[in-house]
């Protein structure tokens, strides 16, 4: 009996979602047949509380490193990971985001795991000169890199630090649109949870409250046209360091009765049916799942005209506005408010049809399976250092 291919997927912190159809890390695990692959999911920091979900991998490992251990040179952390991987003898390691990628670029000079895959979710991680020099020095033939969109891939190639057409590809973020839709609450249930009246027109957004997500521009745009939109509300689900700035802007605009910031809500996509129109005002974005989840709800979408989003929304029939342009965003919001319910439904259905054709979770899983399988020799020929 042949030995199964042994795969480690490593995350910076615990982030397993209750419903795995909206968890792309778990979809990678799901793509690997259990008779051919032995799977382990590891987290550098944090672990689930009682009752919270664990990975569908055969084993989960929680290293419980502190913030101080995970910063700087990370010598203690690196030693622990090295000893663990040397003992386990993995055939493939899948690194999510910069920190695990940086660690394994160094560690694999000695571990010599046959295939290392680095998944890059956005922009900026490799902008620092020291990081680019490190990457150029340490990338070898064992490495493959994946951007979550073509825009992220092009960012990587443009860094001129070891990413090239041979070792770098993109696998676009995807979604199980039917399962996502099935998980969503009804409009009445979602609005009851959020505290929104049945007769309100709701613009909704979901994302971390950080400057790059552009929520301050969304708020200012809403303020420009709110008087022209009776019963209109704005709901921004998420949490982050921009909360106080947004609260100040709400107060300055006199919008306390019209804007809701309910904070971070687990599985926020379940409440998408509370919205009439979804808005993603990001200034920069890899390809956030939130926009795909909104499309699964058949909501008309307004989003920033930025490289990762533009091809998707333009093809799907959504609305694009220049990032940070509050006047044009306000015009788009007013236009969507003035659409009939039938017009909004037609737009939403067109987006949903595009989603089902071009962002299928089955295609996502197949591409990762091929990438992982092609990265190792036949199992009985695998050699470890």
Describe this structure in words.
The structure is a single chain. Residues 377-385 have low confidence and may be disordered. Helix 3 (98-111) packs parallel to helix 4, helix 6 crosses helix 10 (289-296) and helix 8 (215-225) packs across helix 12. The chain is built from 14 helices and 13 strands. 39% of the residues lie in helices and 18% in strands. It starts with a strand and ends in an 11-residue tail after the last helix. The strands form two sheets. A seven-stranded parallel sheet has the order 3-2-1-4-5-6-7. Strands 10-9-8-11-12-13 form a six-stranded parallel sheet, sandwiched between helices. The protein is elongated and about 65 Å long. It has two domains: 5-174 and 361-381, Rossmann fold, CATH 3.40.50; 177-358, 3-Layer(aba) Sandwich (Rossmann fold), CATH 3.40.50.
Feature tags:
385 residues; alpha/beta; Rossmann fold; 2 domains; six-stranded parallel β-sheet
Structural class: alpha/beta
CATH fold-type name of the largest domain: Rossmann fold
Strand ordering within the main sheet: 3-2-1-4-5-6-7
C-alpha Rg, in Å?
22 Å
Q: Into which percentage range does the β-strand content fall?
A: 15-25%
Say what oligomer this is: single chain
The CATH homology group name of the largest domain: Glycogen Phosphorylase B
How many individual domains? 2
CATH architecture descriptor of the largest domain: 3-Layer(aba) Sandwich
């Amino acid at each position: 009996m042949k030995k199964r291919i042994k795969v480690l997927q490593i995350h910076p912190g615990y982030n397993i979602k209750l419903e795995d159809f909206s968890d792309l890390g778990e979809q990678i695990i799901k793509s690997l047949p259990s008779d051919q692959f032995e799977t382990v999911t590891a987290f550098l920091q944090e672990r689930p509380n009682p009752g919270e979900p664990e990975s569908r991998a055969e084993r989960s490992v929680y290293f419980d490193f502190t913030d101080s251990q995970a910063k700087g040179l990370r010598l203690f952390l690196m030693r622990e990971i090295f000893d663990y991987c040397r003992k386990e003898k993995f055939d493939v390691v899948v690194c999510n985001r910069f920190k695990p990628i940086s660690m394994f670029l160094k560690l694999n000079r000695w571990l010599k795991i046959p295939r290392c895959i680095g998944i890059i979710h956005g922009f900026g991680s490799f902008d620092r000169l020291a990081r680019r020099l490190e990457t150029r020095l340490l990338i070898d033939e064992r490495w493959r890199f994946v951007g979550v969109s073509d825009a992220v891939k092009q960012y990587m190639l443009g860094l001129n630090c070891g990413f090239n057409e041979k070792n770098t590809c993109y696998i676009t973020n995807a979604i199980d649109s039917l399962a996502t839709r099935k998980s969503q609450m009804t409009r009445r249930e979602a609005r009851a949870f959020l505290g929104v009246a049945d007769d309100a027109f709701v613009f909704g957004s979901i994302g971390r409250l950080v400057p790059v997500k552009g929520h301050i521009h969304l708020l200012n745009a809403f303020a420009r046209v709110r008087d022209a939109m009776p019963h209109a509300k704005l709901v921004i689900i998420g949490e982050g360091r921009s909360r106080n700035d947004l609260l100040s802007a709400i107060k300055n605009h006199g919008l306390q009765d019209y804007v809701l910031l309910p904070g971070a809500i687990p599985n926020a996509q379940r409440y998408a049916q509370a919205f009439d129109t979804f808005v993603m005002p990001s200034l920069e974005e890899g390809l956030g799942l939130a926009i795909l989840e909104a499309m699964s709800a058949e909501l008309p979408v307004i989003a920033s005209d930025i490289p990762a989003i533009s091809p998707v929304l333009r093809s799907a029939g959504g609305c694009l506005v220049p990032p940070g342009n509050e006047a044009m965003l306000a015009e788009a919001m007013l236009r969507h408010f003035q659409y009939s319910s039938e017009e909004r439904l037609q737009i939403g259905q067109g987006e949903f049809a595009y989603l089902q054709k071009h962002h299928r979770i089955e295609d996502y899983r197949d591409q990762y399976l091929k990438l992982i399988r092609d990265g190792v020799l036949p199992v009985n020929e695998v050699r470890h250092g």
